[in-house]
Predict the structure.
Amino acid sequence: MVREITIDPVTRIEGHARITIQLDEAGKVADTLFHVTQFRGFEKLIEGRPLSEMPSIMARICGICPVSHLMASAKACDDLLAVEIPATAVKLRKIMNFAQIIQSHALNFFHLSSPDLLLGMDADPAERNIFGVIRKFPDRAKDGVMLRKFGQQIIEWLGGKRVHPAWVVPGGVTEPLSPERREQILGNVTEGMAIARRTIDWYKGIVDNYTEEIASFANFPSLHLGLTTPEGNLEHYDGPMTFVDEQARNIATVTNPRHYASYIDEAVEDFTYLKFPFYKPMGYPNGLYRVGPLSRLCVAERCGTPLADMELREFRQRLGRVPSSSFHYHWARLIEIIYCIEMIRTILDEADILDTFVRARARPNRFEGVGISEAPRGLLLHHYKIDEHGQMRWANMIIASGHNNLAMNRGIKQVAERFVDGDHLQEGMLNRVEAVIRAFDPCLSCSTHAIGQMAMVIELRQSDGTLVDKLTGPRDGDAR
Amino acid sequence: MTHKSIPTPDSFTLRIDGTDVVAQVGQSILEVAQDHNIGIPTLCYLEGLTPWGGCRLCLVEIKGSGRLLPACSTLATEDMDVTTTSPRIERYRRTIVELLFSERNHICAVCVSNGNCELQTLAQEMGVTHVHVPYRYPTLLVDSSHDGFRLDHNRCVMCTRCVRVCEEIEGAATKGVGGRGIDSMIINDLNEPWGESDTCTSCGKCVSVCPTGALTEKGTTFADMAKRRERRELLPYLTQTREGRR
């Protein structure tokens, strides 16, 4: 008897999704499908709106990473204005982007993923959530809350509010940094760094307990895509887009983001609203590549800051130059948090950081512009076309979680093949199927530009489509 | 229209909300109320421009009249007994604001005037938390053809301040109202793109007096809105200019 399992909703992720697992007659996994089930259509609703509104409209795609969309959108607008924005504005934008990455990584690691790591993949789903962590490991939970606050507080100090700040605009930022704010941010750096370091030390001690998960959580060689500085350092704001293979060999370097379409194409499948970007020269679906913290560490030669580089050396010593398992996104996130805190301190110490010239003004000088930045989850790309009056005619966005769609689908199949046994179905098996998605930290609301409660479902079906079993809310995700 | 310029020293008394107040001949109920710090909400009214009485937010009750009357365009008279607030008036005003929100596409979160919008302020003051009538979601265009300014019909409440300031203060009479009823729209000249107008002097007064985000300077973003508030302080100047011409 051929059966099908559906996980619906998938929990502790950003956005809505469903997983279908098809079992063969022996009860073994035949195939899996990852369905992202919502659609919002931002690319359509911005048509006709003025260019200057784009950053604040596009930031509404997401409440977790509005800053990332602000960056990519403002940079696409900078490109349309054809201006070079003031150097201080670039630095201030970078600080906000680092703060965004810190808070989002803290959210994924502590609030969404740590229940699996601290309480166990097979723990009671009623306890396996952030509240369970607070009850059993209050210090870790507090670290998570404080680290996220560290990032969010910087965003608020710079932009006036934590979610959807209107401070990043085409041409730069609206307000310079005041000496008082600079001191306030610097005053918090020590505590932020202390939390980041004790978290990574703890994680390095437990990562070896997850050998089986590491072996099957989207564990395969693939291409990786990320930004680097021209010297090959880790980079999140600008720089060449670099593709490397599973041995860190450079496959392609895209120096002008406007040429992205020669390297990336998007495929569409009828079982999901999330498109499948692929590396164009290798075709679909062979052109699978990954983005995000793990990919950035694979693409970069080095971080470029002392503590993060020390951690990166240990990471590479233990896992190799290009780790193949997506489980290691967790570790990469923790290294990036350290890097971001170091960079915030470095940039704040630069001589011109308090300069008051932070905005270049210009009219639209091009009809087409592309903006890129590294969101917490990976490379984010906004591509706009405008008319002669500066009104939007067309937009395309490629979101980090979209880049990872092929890898997530393949990873789900791999982990289901390893853990799901149709004859002896247990909740912990299905939790691992969800946990592989959590490792990628997808933001599905962003990727389809969709809105909704965070949720995901698993279903078990016979070959004729009859529903055999279904795991659905209220599950651990409801703690969110 | 010329109530302030009528040369009479005569004053008289009327009652507003149960209190005796002194008024000058030719003053509207709204002006008398403002002189005595009695708040009446307004939207289309702007000191220095001809009262128009279009938005109906300043409706008041006058004893002896079954109808509610607009305070901005009703002259105060001796022994008049005016009530500015009652459950009936509040219901009318709240409904008017809700209808304004439902009529076009007011998306506060991304509007350039967010936090600096008179419609938004009115809604907050009146406790409008929901709109109880269906939204119309009309498909409206944005006119960005002018070099410096933008007209977004989605955010327009048809207060006609721009029409009046353009004719009465600037003397250009570029702005007008086209269409009828709910299809009324602000137009430039004979309904041409703003950028092709022969009469517009690009003075920007219409942008300064617009209560919402319908008329804006190009290139301004969500974050620039506070700066526009300062320009509303030119209103006493508008009055002086206008009266100096007579």
